[in-house]
């Protein structure tokens, strides 16, 4: 089966970009979880650093299925993800999807998904079911 890797642009996980991501995704601007925004407190936590929200980590998979595999017109129908290691602000990550099953009657597929940090450590793992909408004129 096919698989594809994808990484965001360098610097994508800078604090200013994370704040814009939060607003763009409808997160309450009063949600200032210190693990994401307060360096001094976050460094005293079990993580020892500022970490990005889970939606930022999984967002790389949204971009991957919408742009590369299967591609434009693809949406998630179901996801089952485990966040197994926090991603720090300024860390680079790589997303991976691998096709495991495709329905013969509809453009629906089941994928293995993962996100790794720049040390190759697994940060997110799981599965996703996607539907690719046929786009007219695309």
Automatic annotation (TrEMBL):
Domain MaoC-like: from-to ranges: 31-115
Recorded superkingdom: Bacteria
What InterPro entries is this protein classified in? HotDog_dom_sf, MaoC-like_dom, UPF0336/Enoyl-CoA_hydratase
The protein's matches in Pfam families, at most eight in alphabetical order, are given as: MaoC_dehydratas
Extract the PANTHER family matched here: HYDROXYACYL-THIOESTER DEHYDRATASE TYPE 2, MITOCHONDRIAL (PTHR43437:SF3), HYDROXYACYL-THIOESTER DEHYDRATASE TYPE 2, MITOCHONDRIAL-RELATED (PTHR43437)
- Report the protein name in the record: MaoC/PaaZ C-terminal domain-containing protein
């Amino acid at each position: 089966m096919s698989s594809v890797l994808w990484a965001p642009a360098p610097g994508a996980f800078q604090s200013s970009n994370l704040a814009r991501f939060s607003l763009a995704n409808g997160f309450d601007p009063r949600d200032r979880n210190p693990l994401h925004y307060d360096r001094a407190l976050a460094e005293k936590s079990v993580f020892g650093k500022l970490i990005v929200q889970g939606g930022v980590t999984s967002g790389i998979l949204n971009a991957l299925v919408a742009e590369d595999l299967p591609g434009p017109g693809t949406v998630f129908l179901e996801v089952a993800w485990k966040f197994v290691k926090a991603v720090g602000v300024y860390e680079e990550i790589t997303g991976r999807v691998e096709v495991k099953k495709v329905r013969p009657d509809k453009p629906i597929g089941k994928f293995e998904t993962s996100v790794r940090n720049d040390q190759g450590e697994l940060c997110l793992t799981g599965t996703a079911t996607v539907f690719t909408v046929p786009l007219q004129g695309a």
